[in-house]
Amino acid sequence: MRGLMQDVPLTVDTIFRHAEQHHGDVPIVTNNPSGKVRTTYAEWADRTRRLGGVLDTLGVSAEGRVGTFAWNSARHLELYFAAPCTGRVLHTLNVRLFPEQLTYIANHAEDEVVFVDRTVLPLLWPLIDTMTTVRHVVVMDDGGDNEVPDDPRVLDYETLLADAQPVEFTTTDENAAASMCYTSGTTGNPKGVVYSHRSTVLHTMAVVSPNGFGIGVEDVAMPIVPMFHANAWGIAHAAPASGAAMVFPGAMMQPQALADLIIDEGVTFTAGVPTIFQGALPHLAGRTHRLRKIGCGGSAVPKALSEAYREQVGLPLYQAWGMTETHPVASGGTLSARWADADEGAKAERRARAGLPLFGVLARIVDADTLEEQPWDDKATGELQVRGPWCAQDYYRPDAGVELATPDGWMKTGDVAAMDENGNIRIADRTKDLIKSGGEWISSVDLENAIMSHPAVKEAAVIAIPHPKWDERPLACVVLREGETVTGQEIIDHITPLVAKWWLPEAVEFIDEVPKTSVGKFSKKDLRSRFADYPVND
Ligand code: ADP
Question: In terms of CB atoms within 10 Å, which end of the chain has fewer, N or C?
């Protein structure tokens, strides 16, 4: 017997139409260097339909890739929908990547056009001749006085839009590509992840659900996580899908500007990587705000940071785990009702976990070589593998030897995790960041958490350094808060009761700043090469 329900395709234009029809009066704000720009979903919808007309006029092919090189803004949101809703594929380029990577990615994806914010035009324009498939560069004037080249390929966004006719959105194939995003490629070439319409809609439903970010019509949602990084964690789809007002930081990504925007615009939900919230903390502490949930992830969320938010801002950080390959949100740190009366210490421990898989995602931990499942006892660790309708099955035209899926159809994450009896995930490390000392693994994440619980410590990154006897030993790279002075021995004394004795770092190096990747995470690769010849005692 067949089900007798309507077979309606899950396409991105259903999200668009919902916002257009039901939430037209809801405001969208973008904080540009030239000042705040205010619009509504109604205006956004009209402009997005006309942007569809622009893509036709520019001759972008039926499944052509539409590149963006832009901050979070209402215009970027127009592109987020105009491209997939007309059958094209949105391709967000990361404005912080190295030139060679940008060229590689634009050529690999075969971008036909790139829409670029004027504030970052100088980063893109010098590369344009190396991007062999790009025919047009459309400049979105977000302020500043960067020179706009006098070149026939260069066009002005607002001029094109003013001249364009609105189009109907008629996509019907839910398995067609909607957008693509490349992972930062800590090893080898960047790898392209291709999201389908269907995966986007299902991921959106998970993100709006209470166990996800729980974004609803009462929210004012501000994605700090860039729209060029893993779909802004689904917020740019979840807000229109639920009628939440939107606030975009534009190029104004400085901690003070972010904090002021949160407060001045009454933001209720925001999300970003831990380093963003580390920076924003002093600017938010003690101020009156309307925040009710702060999503944080992309790397381990230090317990001390979450607790500092609870104490100084009034709410802890909600930790989520995911990858570009999982759209990205796959699990979230839920505190079920049974935690209501737990003491704050126990709750903080719980929040330091990656949480439960969101409904729709299956997770397991396995021995990476034998695929043997590890027990859910919170002690055994293994590679975290996931399966679900918004997990990638493969990369776009991968390099030889790059394999994302296991033979039995699960997605490899490269993360090492333990799971408790309910399958609540505790990320121990990324495979490549683990420290192998005397044949046993040391979790850099656990050490960092212990070090960051010292009040004088602002940031800590633990890396492996080569050791003649133990193979590898941990080195703690520590950034102190301004005005603090602490010795390495004091740090070691502080963490001695917190970790196994053989985990204690070989040494503590005080550094001015932890180098960051293009998406604001700790760049351990840079630290490893900086300290590759670190002198050790055998
Ligand atoms: P990259 O960091 O390589 O640019 P992603 O942004 O896709 O790519 O990052 C995915 C990785 O980020 C995960 O594999 C994991 O290592 C890390 N990560 C994400 N969320 C968390 C979390 N809550 N705790 C620890 N690590 C996390």
Answer: N
| Better pLDDT: 436 or 249 | 249
Structure tokens at 275: 């380093």
Helix (H) or strand (E) holding 309: helix 303-312
Task: Let me know if 102 is exposed, middle or buried by CB neighbors in 10 A (0-12, 13-18, 19+).
Answer: buried
Residue type, 478: V
pLDDT digits (tens, 9 = 90+) for 2-38: 999 999 999 999 999 999 999 999 999 999 998 999 9
Q: What is the pLDDT of residues 275-285, one digit of tens each?
A: 999 999 999 99
Report the nearest-CA residue for atom 12 of ligand 1: 298
Q: Among residues of the chain, what percentage have pLDDT more than 70?
A: 99
For residue 334, pLDDT over 90 is answered with no
List pocket residues of ligand 1, CB cut-off 6 Å: 183-184, 186, 230, 297-301, 319, 321-324, 328, 354, 413-415, 427, 430, 519, 521
From 321, 413, 452, give the residue whose CB has the most ligand 1 atoms within 8 Å, as the site to mutate.
Answer: 321
Spell out the domains of the chain, with CATH numbers in brackets: 12-253 (3.40.50.12780), 354-431 (2.30.38.10), 434-530 (3.30.300.30)
Distance 306 CA to ligand 1 centre (A): 18
**pLDDT value, residue 187:** 61
298 CA to centre of ligand 1 in angstroms: 4
The residue behind tokens 């205006």 is 43
